[in-house]
Here is the input.
Amino acid sequence: MRENTTETTFGEMKTCIKAAVRTRWIKQHPSFSALDLYHSLNRVKQTTIFWLRTEHNRLRKYMYTKLKIGETPICQCGQGPQSGEHISKTSPNLGTRYGPSPPSSQKICMALGET
Ligand SMILES: [Zn+2]
Here is the structure.
């Protein structure tokens, strides 16, 4: 005869914890949409967009203001700080290389599959 028990198995606890964490995360991030095309991009493309959105990159503005590296935060075009927003929207140097390794707009477009 099988013993009637109320013990929760490890698998059941794991499922409950995952569901609770997911529910809390969704409440904390109401604008999240799994249908956002961002989530259909591969890791390289998502990383490139993340660098631009967060300004955590190797562009002059970040290197100069956060890491105290370099002589100026100003872009080579002289029209403003070299930030992700600047090189992706307003710089006349759009499509040119911005130093040893930061993502140029050309690289960004290539990473996004656009030409
Ligand atoms: Zn510029």
Summary: Residues 37-111 form one domain. Residues 48 and 108 are 7 Å apart (CA to CA). Residues 75, 77, 79, 86, 91, 93 surround zinc ion (CB under 6 Å). The helical segments are 10-28, 43-54, 60-65, 84-90, 105-111.
